Automatic annotation (TrEMBL), chain A:
<dbReference type="Pfam" id="PF01315">
    <property type="entry name" value="Ald_Xan_dh_C"/>
</dbReference>
<dbReference type="Pfam" id="PF02738">
    <property type="entry name" value="MoCoBD_1"/>
</dbReference>
<feature type="domain" description="Aldehyde oxidase/xanthine dehydrogenase a/b hammerhead">
    <location>
        <begin position="32"/>
        <end position="138"/>
    </location>
</feature>
<dbReference type="InterPro" id="IPR049648">
    <property type="entry name" value="PaoC-like"/>
</dbReference>
<dbReference type="InterPro" id="IPR000674">
    <property type="entry name" value="Ald_Oxase/Xan_DH_a/b"/>
</dbReference>
<dbReference type="InterPro" id="IPR046867">
    <property type="entry name" value="AldOxase/xan_DH_MoCoBD2"/>
</dbReference>
<dbReference type="GO" id="GO:0016491">
    <property type="term" value="F:oxidoreductase activity"/>
</dbReference>
<dbReference type="InterPro" id="IPR008274">
    <property type="entry name" value="AldOxase/xan_DH_MoCoBD1"/>
</dbReference>
<protein>
    <submittedName>
        <fullName>Xanthine dehydrogenase family protein molybdopterin-binding subunit</fullName>
    </submittedName>
</protein>
UniProtKB/TrEMBL annotation, chain B:
<dbReference type="InterPro" id="IPR016166">
    <property type="entry name" value="FAD-bd_PCMH"/>
</dbReference>
<dbReference type="InterPro" id="IPR002346">
    <property type="entry name" value="Mopterin_DH_FAD-bd"/>
</dbReference>
<dbReference type="InterPro" id="IPR005107">
    <property type="entry name" value="CO_DH_flav_C"/>
</dbReference>
<dbReference type="InterPro" id="IPR016169">
    <property type="entry name" value="FAD-bd_PCMH_sub2"/>
</dbReference>
<keyword id="KW-0285">Flavoprotein</keyword>
<dbReference type="Pfam" id="PF00941">
    <property type="entry name" value="FAD_binding_5"/>
</dbReference>
<dbReference type="GO" id="GO:0016491">
    <property type="term" value="F:oxidoreductase activity"/>
</dbReference>
<dbReference type="GO" id="GO:0071949">
    <property type="term" value="F:FAD binding"/>
</dbReference>
<dbReference type="InterPro" id="IPR036318">
    <property type="entry name" value="FAD-bd_PCMH-like_sf"/>
</dbReference>
Length: 725, 316
């Protein structure tokens, strides 16, 4: 099915199942342990051996020797695959750091061996017996040291004459904000079971993008990707860290070949931060020039980041072109090359940290103008994409998000003067931020089977904890007129039709649209079998009404249909995005500077919300992650050793329940006709775009202290808190 | 983790002898610290002597009005004991400020005292660390030291004792009773139990090889307001940046001990005598001679401000 024009009215406008809060159908399996994650798939293949990954102990240099005698002789050891004895494997999609093979070390904890043994404990113990010697070379690990000389990546985007307009602006803000590296810290680390059958390879793994995974494995291993099957029905969180193939899958495949047995590997938690990918640190300079009435006349956002050779930085300016009006503009990205681990996608890449700067700069501008921060944003609401009058916003309700949020949150009670509200030892403050996140779509296919009046859906789409099973079941149930429990959804298998996969918050709307397309095809087949015009029929409660005649779905027998939704060029005339107003109240301890979040609110504009229950979970989860980014999360680089030192969950502090006492999410009742037949946009990344800045602005409102280096830990402002008696 | 043998001790004396008589033997109590370290091969005992059958899990009144806490009493049991809650509130508060419910259910009194540092370099066997690999150097001294000690450090090691319970025990003048491998016993004041790193940073405490803790004794209650304030980056499940244990009396006198600042619970009787003069005077004296790094010098300001907050709370 080709989606070539705005959606117009369709079945989902009168939906009975789609758009209704529906508990996730895989929920009972998950809470009873019967939804197995990759490492727990004990039943898929017999005789699984355990692999343990050895990470390099240096960040740059060469392996000069690896002594394996003791390890090979250790109890239970079946095979040891080492990097020096392996030809470097190829690279798949978006692999920049080497995955495995050869003696060259380019980053800390790069995989240098995999030990396979009968038990996990034996593999681990044997791995500790490997004695590796290195020839270290000096590397470049210090972002601050190289930042100033980082080359620009891509063209700078300019509009009008920024410098002149900024110089002439009545009010100017010129501030620099920094964000540190972050790790995905998904609950399920990267994990894979691999088994060979002749030249056919099956991987039971944890991956967000099945089609990419399958194709990449062909390139990486130098085999025909047609011989690869990837299966990933449950993913315990990915956040972008599982978009591409990483060492767990490569080593499972290589080790399984060497061991001549299926091999399972879970990347050890302490390796994840340095072996796999992370969100890179940024250094962002924002300049805003405005008239006294608040209109922005000059807007510049420059962002410095880094990556390994040949890969791009964390593009923090991503949202800046679209959020606010302003005739004179300059945005630019600079990317240094460092010998740190590879930077790659993490939830709302670019935007998540871009908002931490831009939305604080807006708060600073509002204060400089003596203007309410919401009014400032409203005044600067653009009519069309700035600098691109031909490009319209498909459906944009940012102002409503902010206004309705303000009502709901009690914004009018905010003191515009900072540090004005104190109760006992607590300083109270509130903050707001806007959120913008693009809503892309990708072609997505599905197959639907009908038998005995029941529906089975097959697509290689993934459920990374997002609720995909449920929204796909809702879509199929709606289309085929059957109750939800008559639909079985099977996901994540590369033998199923290729889907959009889960990433960039495109998954929900694309994959359900693919299922819609397949269901349209199935309805037509049913119409042919039973003799009615499917496009004019109503499918409801297991029956079909067409031209005043009734049919029973079950009478159509056994049928299958497959289709793929493809998105047409007409979308290029639109900026299709999601919007949010984020609000937060904090209390800061006037003595110690500890920040306690008191309540958070997100008002989201994302078109039709397919399942408000799971969409809410997406948004509150993202808000938690934003709170972590604002307050605690930081990969600390040791520039001598070239590694992230705090590479476990004790040292890298994500929020705990006690940090998040109260969250509320409101979805506007909007529809976006441009995005897809579902008129729905994703929310999984919208939720992390803005809340961190709202927290930062609330801390400022509470204390009158502006800290521009994230995370906002108390050591950065303790000496500026009110004097103690 | 290296393979090890295992036995269940039958008496304290037998346990002590079993550990002393064998190279690389160690006691295991709740296992919540030891097993984690064994997985990383930071500890690699060849033999474990399990203490769970020794009946050391009781809290008894002592003749002079205090409490004797068995070495195997869990953190949960100790924190929730009615006598402890009523008369040694600072101890209950310190314990529940630590770890998580599940860990406290497993963690024991002796094991808690002996938990090892949380210095990140201690946990990465690729990196230098004098505490883990004597003579390899101290990566933290010029590295990431935000969490580490500001006082009592040496050029060999700047790690902290990371725990909470011991800060309250130090405040309460607790003593640790032990059994030696030869069957004799001794009593160690908590003040002398943990040691400073000096030039032997691998030694955390003054226990001898095979010396078994059998109990910790609290002297009779001292009254006053009992406060434990733990300042950290998130609201639970994190180690202290700074913690303050205090017992404060209406006349402004009291006791105060600091956690998260040194290789041992940090209390100076001389400094706490200045409590009537306010937090600033106490902290100035208690932290005289501090040698913080750029990363962690905020801890002294934080100690000052936290103590001020504790004093204000006691007054209110
Ligand atoms: C995730 C996490 C978070 C934590 N957070 C905190 C926190 O915030 N605050 C805090 O204070 N603690 C915290 N802890 C540490 C926790 O309190 C300790 O792990 C626990 O108290 C150790 O007790 P255990 O009985 O399990 O000791 P074990 O692990 O069994 O033993 C620890 C050591 O003590 C020795 N030992 C045990 N019993 C005896 C004995 N009777 N005589 C002589 N030697 C003995 C063992 O040989 C071993 O060397 C945390 C731990 C974890 C894993
Ligand atoms: S501070 Fe102590 S524990 Fe940390 S690296 Fe230095 S020697 Fe090791």
């Amino acid at each position: 099915m080709q989606f070539d024009a705005p959606a117009g009215s369709n079945i989902f406008d009168d939906a009975r199942i789609v758009g209704k809060s529906t508990p996730r159908i895989d929920g009972p399996n998950k809470v009873t342990g019967t939804a197995p994650y990759a490492y727990e798939r004990h039943d898929v293949v017999a005789d699984q051996a355990y692999g343990w990954i050895v990470g390099a102990g240096i960040a740059k240099g060469r392996i000069t020797s690896m002594e394996l005698t003791a390890a090979k002789a250790a109890p239970g050891v079946i095979a040891i695959v080492t990097a020096p004895d392996t030809q470097p494997v190829g690279k798949g999609m978006d692999n920049h750091a080497p995955l495995f093979g050869g003696s060259e070390i380019t980053h800390y904890h790069q995989a240098i061996a995999c030990v396979v043994a009968e038990t996990f404990e034996q593999a681990r113990a044997a791995a500790a017996l490997i004695d590796t010697n290195y020839d270290r070379s000096t590397g470049s690990f210090d972002f601050d040291a190289v930042r100033a000389s980082a080359p620009r990546s891509g063209e700078a985007e300019t509009l009008g004459d920024f410098e002149t307009a900024f110089a002439e602006a009545a009010v100017q803000i010129d501030e620099t904000y920094t964000t540190p590296g972050q790790t995905h810290a998904m609950m399920e680390p990267l994990a894979t079971i691999a088994a060979w059958d002749g030249d056919k390879l099956t991987l039971w793994t944890s991956n967000q993008m099945i089609t990419w995974a399958k194709e990449s494995l062909g390139d990486i291993l130098g085999i025909d990707s047609a011989n690869v099957r990837v299966d990933s029905p449950y993913v315990g969180g990915g956040f972008g860290g599982k978009l591409f193939i990483r060492a767990d899958a490569v080593l499972a495949a290589l080790a399984s070949k060497a061991a001549k047995r299926p091999v399972k590997i879970m990347m050890q938690r302490p390796l994840v931060a340095n072996n796999a990918t992370h969100r890179q640190a940024t250094h962002q300079r924002i300049r805003l020039g405005a008239r006294m009435d608040g209109h922005i006349t000059a807007l510049s956002h420059q962002n410095w980041s880094y990556n390994v050779e040949g890969a791009s930085g964390e593009t923090a300016t991503a949202q800046t072109a679209k959020v606010y009006a302003g005739a004179n503009r300059l945005t630019a990205e600079y990317c240094a090359t460092l010998d740190l681990p590879e930077g790659n996608a993490m939830r709302a890449p670019g935007e998540a940290v871009g908002h931490l700067a831009l939305e604080v700069a807006m708060d600073e501008l509002a204060e400089a103008l003596g203007m309410d921060p919401i009014e400032l944003r409203v005044v600067n609401e653009p009519d069309a994409v700035p600098g691109n009058p031909g490009k319209r916003f498909s459906d944009r309700n940012l102002v409503r998000c902010l206004r309705e949020g303000a009502d709901r949150f009690g914004w009018s009670e905010r003191s515009a003067t900072p540090a004005a509200r104190r109760e006992g030892r607590w300083l109270f403050g509130v903050g707001v931020a806007a959120g913008y996140r693009g809503a892309p779509t990708c072609k997505s296919g599905a197959r639907v089977h009908l038998a005995d009046g029941r529906i089975v859906v097959e697509t290689d789409m993934t459920d990374i904890g997002t609720g995909t099973y449920t929204i796909i079941a809702q879509t199929a149930a709606e289309m085929m007129g059957v109750p939800l429990d008559h639909v079985t959804v099977t996901l994540g298998d590369s033998s199923f039709p290729a889907s959009a996969g889960s990433g960039g918050q495109w998954g929900a709307t694309s994959s359900t649209a693919g299922v819609y397309a397949a269901c349209v095809a199935l309805r037509r087949q049913i119409g042919e079998v039973l003799g009615f015009d499917a496009d004019d029929a109503r499918f409801e409660d297991g029956s079909i009404v067409a031209a005043n005649k009734a049919f029973r779905l079950a009478d159509a027998g056994t049928l299958s249909a497959e289709d793929t939704i493809r998105f047409g060029k007409f979308k290029k005339d639109y900026d299709v995005a999601t919007y949010a107003g984020h609000f937060c109240e904090v209390a800061v301890d006037a003595y110690t500077g500890e920040t306690h979040i008191r309540r958070m609110l997100a008002v989201c504009d994302a078109g039709r919300i397919l399942n408000p229950l799971s969409a809410r979970s997406q948004v509150i989860g993202a808000m938690v992650m934003a709170a972590g980014a604002a307050l605690t999360e930081e990969l600390t680089v040791d520039t001598r050793f070239g590694c992230f030192v705090n590479h476990d969950l004790a040292g890298y502090e994500v929020p705990v329940h006690a940090d998040i006492p109260h969250q509320e999410v409101i979805f506007l009742d909007t529809l976006d006709e441009i995005v897809s037949p579902m008129k729905a946009k994703g929310v999984g990344e919208l939720g992390i775009c803005g809340p961190g800045a709202a927290i930062a602005n609330a801390i400022y409102n509470a204390t009158g202290i502006r800290v521009r280096d994230y995370p906002l830990t108390l050591d950065k402002y303790l000496d500026r808190l009110p004097a103690i008696a | 983790m290296k393979a090890f043998t295992y036995e269940r001790a039958t008496s304290p004396e037998q346990a002590a002898a079993a550990v002393a008589g064998r190279d690389g033997a160690k006691f295991i109590a709740g296992g919540t610290n030891l097993l984690d370290l064994m997985k990383l091969q930071i500890e690699a005992p060849t033999h474990l002597v399990d203490l769970q059958d020794l009946g050391l899990d009781k809290i008894d009144a002592t003749r002079d009005g205090g409490l004797r806490i068995g070495a195997l009493v869990t953190n949960t049991a100790l924190a929730s004991d009615d006598r402890v809650r009523a008369q040694y509130g600072v101890l209950t508060r310190a314990i529940v400020a630590g770890a998580s419910g599940q860990l406290r259910n497993k963690a024991t009194t002796a094991g808690n005292l002996l938990q090892r540092t949380r210095c990140p370099y201690f946990y990465d066997t690729n990196l230098p660390c004098n505490k883990r690999a004597p003579g390899s150097g101290c990566a933290a001294a010029e590295g990431f030291s935000r969490q580490l000690a500001v006082i009592g450090t040496s050029d060999q090691c700047i790690a902290t004792y990371p725990g909470d319970m011991a800060i309250a025990l130090r405040l309460l003048d607790a003593t640790v009773e032990t059994v030696m491998p030869d069957g004799t016993g001794r009593s160690i004041a908590l003040a002398d139990f943990h040691r400073l790193p000096g030039d032997q940073p691998w030694l955390d405490n003054t226990l001898a090889e095979g010396e078994l803790i059998i109990s910790v004794t609290l002297p009779k209650p001292i009254g006053g307001r009992h406060i434990y304030r733990k300042v950290r980056d998130r609201r639970s499940y994190a180690f202290a940046l700074v913690s303050v244990a205090a017992v404060l009396h209406d006349d402004g006198t009291g006791r105060v001990a600091f956690g998260g600042v040194a290789h041992k619970p940090w209390r100076s009787e001389e400094a706490e005598a200045l409590l009537p003069q306010g937090a600033g005077a106490v902290v100035e004296r208690a932290f005289a001679g501090a040698a913080p790094t750029d990363d962690n010098k905020f801890k002294i300001t934080l100690a000052d401000r936290t103590l001020a907050s504790v004093i204000a709370e006691a007054r209110s």
